[in-house]
Amino acid sequence: MQIIKVPGLNCLGKNQGCLNAGNAVLAELAKEFDSSVLNLEEIHVDNEDVVEQEKLIYENSKDAFEEQDKVIFLGGDHSITYSTGKAFLDVFGNNSYLIVFDAHADCMPAMKEPTHEEWLRGLVERGFDSSHIVLVGLRKIELEERRFLDSNKIKYFEMGKFENFEFLCDSVMEFVNQPDSKVYVSIDIDVVDPAFAPSTGYLEPGGFSSREILYFVRRLSKMRGLRAVDIVEIDSEGDKKKGNVTVRLGARILWEFLQ
Predict the structure, then answer these.
(1) All domains of the chain, ordered by start, with CATH?
(2) Is it the case that residue 160 has pLDDT exceeding 90?
(3) How many angstroms separate the CA atoms of 32 and 29, rounded?
(4) What is the pTM assigned to this prediction?
(5) Mean pLDDT taken over the chain
(6) CA 85 to CA 235: how far, in whole Å?
Protein backbone atom coordinates (compact mmCIF):
# COMPACT_ATOMS: atom_id res chain seq x y z
CA MET A 1 0.00 0.00 0.00
CA GLN A 2 1.18 3.48 -0.80
CA ILE A 3 -0.01 6.91 0.35
CA ILE A 4 0.56 9.70 -2.17
CA LYS A 5 0.17 13.38 -1.37
CA VAL A 6 -1.26 15.29 -4.32
CA PRO A 7 -1.36 19.06 -3.60
CA GLY A 8 -3.19 19.73 -6.84
CA LEU A 9 -5.58 22.65 -7.28
CA ASN A 10 -7.90 23.49 -10.14
CA CYS A 11 -10.73 24.81 -8.02
CA LEU A 12 -11.44 28.22 -9.57
CA GLY A 13 -9.93 29.84 -6.49
CA LYS A 14 -12.65 28.43 -4.23
CA ASN A 15 -10.69 26.19 -1.85
CA GLN A 16 -7.05 27.24 -1.90
CA GLY A 17 -6.74 26.17 1.75
CA CYS A 18 -6.69 22.49 0.81
CA LEU A 19 -3.27 22.77 -0.86
CA ASN A 20 -1.36 21.31 2.11
CA ALA A 21 -4.13 19.14 3.53
CA GLY A 22 -2.12 15.97 2.93
CA ASN A 23 0.62 17.13 5.29
CA ALA A 24 -1.93 18.23 7.88
CA VAL A 25 -3.79 14.91 7.79
CA LEU A 26 -0.59 12.92 8.09
CA ALA A 27 0.60 15.09 11.00
CA GLU A 28 -2.67 14.39 12.80
CA LEU A 29 -2.40 10.68 12.02
CA ALA A 30 1.13 10.60 13.45
CA LYS A 31 -0.25 11.50 16.89
CA GLU A 32 -1.77 8.02 17.17
CA PHE A 33 -0.03 5.95 14.51
CA ASP A 34 3.62 5.27 13.73
CA SER A 35 3.77 7.01 10.37
CA SER A 36 7.41 6.07 9.88
CA VAL A 37 6.26 2.65 8.66
CA LEU A 38 4.07 4.13 5.92
CA ASN A 39 5.06 4.10 2.26
CA LEU A 40 4.73 7.82 1.51
CA GLU A 41 5.21 9.67 -1.74
CA GLU A 42 4.28 13.07 -3.13
CA ILE A 43 3.51 14.23 -6.65
CA HIS A 44 5.18 17.62 -6.92
CA VAL A 45 2.87 19.67 -9.10
CA ASP A 46 2.89 23.25 -10.36
CA ASN A 47 -0.57 24.67 -9.79
CA GLU A 48 0.20 27.53 -12.17
CA ASP A 49 0.34 25.03 -15.05
CA VAL A 50 -2.74 22.81 -14.92
CA VAL A 51 -1.82 21.02 -18.15
CA GLU A 52 1.50 19.84 -16.74
CA GLN A 53 -0.14 19.20 -13.38
CA GLU A 54 -2.71 16.87 -14.92
CA LYS A 55 0.01 15.03 -16.85
CA LEU A 56 2.18 14.51 -13.75
CA ILE A 57 -0.70 13.27 -11.63
CA TYR A 58 -1.80 10.89 -14.38
CA GLU A 59 1.64 9.42 -15.02
CA ASN A 60 2.58 9.01 -11.36
CA SER A 61 -0.74 7.52 -10.32
CA LYS A 62 -0.68 5.10 -13.27
CA ASP A 63 2.75 3.87 -12.16
CA ALA A 64 1.45 3.46 -8.62
CA PHE A 65 -1.58 1.43 -9.74
CA GLU A 66 0.67 -0.89 -11.70
CA GLU A 67 3.06 -1.42 -8.77
CA GLN A 68 0.94 -1.27 -5.60
CA ASP A 69 -1.91 -3.40 -4.32
CA LYS A 70 -3.66 -0.28 -2.98
CA VAL A 71 -3.07 3.46 -3.34
CA ILE A 72 -4.44 6.28 -1.18
CA PHE A 73 -4.28 9.85 -2.50
CA LEU A 74 -4.44 12.87 -0.21
CA GLY A 75 -5.54 16.02 -2.03
CA GLY A 76 -5.72 18.76 -2.94
CA ASP A 77 -9.11 19.49 -4.43
CA HIS A 78 -11.40 17.13 -6.29
CA SER A 79 -9.98 17.99 -9.71
CA ILE A 80 -7.13 15.54 -9.00
CA THR A 81 -9.60 12.65 -9.36
CA TYR A 82 -9.95 13.34 -13.07
CA SER A 83 -6.27 12.49 -13.57
CA THR A 84 -6.08 9.63 -11.06
CA GLY A 85 -9.36 8.27 -12.41
CA LYS A 86 -8.05 8.29 -15.98
CA ALA A 87 -5.00 6.35 -14.84
CA PHE A 88 -7.18 3.89 -12.92
CA LEU A 89 -9.31 3.31 -16.02
CA ASP A 90 -6.26 2.83 -18.24
CA VAL A 91 -4.79 0.24 -15.85
CA PHE A 92 -7.94 -1.73 -14.94
CA GLY A 93 -10.12 -1.14 -18.00
CA ASN A 94 -13.68 -2.48 -17.97
CA ASN A 95 -13.24 -3.82 -14.42
CA SER A 96 -13.04 -0.24 -13.07
CA TYR A 97 -15.73 0.86 -10.59
CA LEU A 98 -16.01 4.24 -8.91
CA ILE A 99 -17.76 5.20 -5.65
CA VAL A 100 -17.95 8.95 -5.10
CA PHE A 101 -18.92 10.49 -1.76
CA ASP A 102 -19.83 14.11 -2.42
CA ALA A 103 -22.43 16.74 -1.63
CA HIS A 104 -22.24 17.84 -5.28
CA ALA A 105 -22.47 15.98 -8.59
CA ASP A 106 -19.39 17.63 -10.16
CA CYS A 107 -20.89 17.12 -13.61
CA MET A 108 -20.97 20.58 -15.14
CA PRO A 109 -19.77 20.79 -18.79
CA ALA A 110 -16.09 19.94 -18.67
CA MET A 111 -13.24 22.24 -19.60
CA LYS A 112 -10.21 20.80 -21.38
CA GLU A 113 -8.58 20.39 -17.97
CA PRO A 114 -11.64 19.74 -15.76
CA THR A 115 -11.93 21.64 -12.49
CA HIS A 116 -13.34 20.31 -9.25
CA GLU A 117 -16.84 21.15 -10.54
CA GLU A 118 -16.59 19.06 -13.73
CA TRP A 119 -14.09 16.27 -13.12
CA LEU A 120 -16.66 13.45 -13.02
CA ARG A 121 -18.30 14.48 -16.28
CA GLY A 122 -14.86 14.78 -17.84
CA LEU A 123 -14.01 11.28 -16.66
CA VAL A 124 -17.18 9.80 -18.16
CA GLU A 125 -16.52 11.61 -21.44
CA ARG A 126 -12.97 10.22 -21.31
CA GLY A 127 -14.45 6.71 -21.34
CA PHE A 128 -15.14 5.63 -17.75
CA ASP A 129 -18.20 3.34 -17.89
CA SER A 130 -21.04 5.38 -16.41
CA SER A 131 -22.84 2.19 -15.37
CA HIS A 132 -19.88 1.48 -13.05
CA ILE A 133 -20.24 4.74 -11.11
CA VAL A 134 -22.27 5.46 -7.98
CA LEU A 135 -22.55 8.81 -6.17
CA VAL A 136 -23.43 8.89 -2.49
CA GLY A 137 -24.55 11.79 -0.31
CA LEU A 138 -25.64 14.34 -2.92
CA ARG A 139 -27.39 17.42 -1.60
CA LYS A 140 -27.02 19.98 -4.38
CA ILE A 141 -27.43 19.05 -8.05
CA GLU A 142 -27.75 21.60 -10.83
CA LEU A 143 -30.44 20.88 -13.44
CA GLU A 144 -27.83 20.34 -16.16
CA GLU A 145 -25.98 17.89 -13.91
CA ARG A 146 -29.14 15.93 -13.15
CA ARG A 147 -29.83 15.63 -16.85
CA PHE A 148 -26.30 14.34 -17.40
CA LEU A 149 -26.58 11.81 -14.57
CA ASP A 150 -29.94 10.52 -15.75
CA SER A 151 -29.07 10.40 -19.46
CA ASN A 152 -25.90 8.44 -18.68
CA LYS A 153 -27.72 6.17 -16.20
CA ILE A 154 -25.32 7.02 -13.39
CA LYS A 155 -26.56 5.65 -10.09
CA TYR A 156 -26.84 8.26 -7.33
CA PHE A 157 -28.21 8.52 -3.81
CA GLU A 158 -29.43 11.88 -2.58
CA MET A 159 -29.47 12.65 1.13
CA GLY A 160 -33.03 12.92 2.39
CA LYS A 161 -34.30 10.37 -0.11
CA PHE A 162 -33.42 7.28 1.88
CA GLU A 163 -34.27 6.39 5.46
CA ASN A 164 -32.29 3.24 6.18
CA PHE A 165 -28.58 4.06 6.33
CA GLU A 166 -27.47 0.45 6.61
CA PHE A 167 -29.56 -0.49 3.58
CA LEU A 168 -27.85 2.32 1.65
CA CYS A 169 -24.45 0.94 2.58
CA ASP A 170 -25.51 -2.58 1.59
CA SER A 171 -26.76 -1.28 -1.77
CA VAL A 172 -23.49 0.47 -2.58
CA MET A 173 -21.42 -2.54 -1.55
CA GLU A 174 -23.56 -4.83 -3.69
CA PHE A 175 -23.28 -2.47 -6.66
CA VAL A 176 -19.47 -2.67 -6.80
CA ASN A 177 -19.09 -6.25 -5.56
CA GLN A 178 -18.82 -7.77 -9.02
CA PRO A 179 -16.50 -10.52 -10.29
CA ASP A 180 -13.01 -9.07 -10.86
CA SER A 181 -14.16 -5.53 -9.98
CA LYS A 182 -11.43 -3.01 -9.16
CA VAL A 183 -12.83 -0.27 -6.97
CA TYR A 184 -11.86 3.37 -6.54
CA VAL A 185 -13.41 5.26 -3.61
CA SER A 186 -13.32 9.06 -3.80
CA ILE A 187 -14.26 11.02 -0.67
CA ASP A 188 -14.95 14.74 -0.88
CA ILE A 189 -15.08 15.79 2.77
CA ASP A 190 -18.11 17.97 2.03
CA VAL A 191 -20.21 14.80 1.94
CA VAL A 192 -20.07 15.13 5.73
CA ASP A 193 -22.39 17.61 7.42
CA PRO A 194 -20.73 20.98 8.22
CA ALA A 195 -21.33 20.31 11.93
CA PHE A 196 -18.70 17.56 11.70
CA ALA A 197 -16.52 18.88 8.82
CA PRO A 198 -16.75 22.68 8.84
CA SER A 199 -13.62 23.41 6.77
CA THR A 200 -14.16 22.83 3.07
CA GLY A 201 -14.97 24.84 -0.03
CA TYR A 202 -18.74 24.43 -0.33
CA LEU A 203 -20.72 23.77 2.84
CA GLU A 204 -24.03 21.99 2.34
CA PRO A 205 -26.23 21.16 5.36
CA GLY A 206 -27.82 17.77 5.82
CA GLY A 207 -24.81 15.54 5.24
CA PHE A 208 -23.48 12.41 6.90
CA SER A 209 -22.40 12.49 10.51
CA SER A 210 -18.81 11.57 11.26
CA ARG A 211 -20.05 8.32 12.74
CA GLU A 212 -21.94 7.45 9.54
CA ILE A 213 -19.06 8.16 7.16
CA LEU A 214 -16.69 6.14 9.34
CA TYR A 215 -19.13 3.22 9.34
CA PHE A 216 -19.22 3.35 5.55
CA VAL A 217 -15.42 3.58 5.34
CA ARG A 218 -14.89 0.60 7.65
CA ARG A 219 -17.04 -1.56 5.42
CA LEU A 220 -15.52 -0.30 2.18
CA SER A 221 -12.00 -0.87 3.49
CA LYS A 222 -12.72 -4.60 3.67
CA MET A 223 -13.69 -4.94 0.00
CA ARG A 224 -11.60 -7.47 -1.87
CA GLY A 225 -11.47 -5.33 -5.00
CA LEU A 226 -10.53 -2.01 -3.36
CA ARG A 227 -7.51 -0.63 -5.17
CA ALA A 228 -7.67 3.15 -4.75
CA VAL A 229 -8.94 5.84 -2.39
CA ASP A 230 -8.73 9.60 -2.40
CA ILE A 231 -9.60 12.10 0.33
CA VAL A 232 -10.01 15.64 -0.97
CA GLU A 233 -11.26 19.19 -0.33
CA ILE A 234 -10.11 19.50 3.30
CA ASP A 235 -9.35 23.17 3.97
CA SER A 236 -6.53 22.57 6.43
CA GLU A 237 -5.66 26.27 6.59
CA GLY A 238 -9.15 27.36 7.54
CA ASP A 239 -9.44 24.42 9.92
CA LYS A 240 -6.71 25.85 12.15
CA LYS A 241 -9.27 28.35 13.44
CA LYS A 242 -11.82 25.59 14.08
CA GLY A 243 -9.80 23.21 16.22
CA ASN A 244 -8.64 21.04 13.32
CA VAL A 245 -11.97 19.20 13.44
CA THR A 246 -12.04 18.49 9.70
CA VAL A 247 -8.38 17.48 9.53
CA ARG A 248 -8.89 15.07 12.42
CA LEU A 249 -11.82 13.47 10.65
CA GLY A 250 -9.72 13.15 7.50
CA ALA A 251 -6.99 11.45 9.52
CA ARG A 252 -9.51 9.06 11.03
CA ILE A 253 -10.86 8.17 7.59
CA LEU A 254 -7.31 7.53 6.41
CA TRP A 255 -6.59 5.40 9.49
CA GLU A 256 -9.63 3.22 8.81
CA PHE A 257 -8.39 2.50 5.29
CA LEU A 258 -5.00 1.51 6.70
CA GLN A 259 -6.43 -1.23 8.90
Answers:
(1) 2-258 (3.40.800.10)
(2) no
(3) 6
(4) 0.96
(5) 95
(6) 22
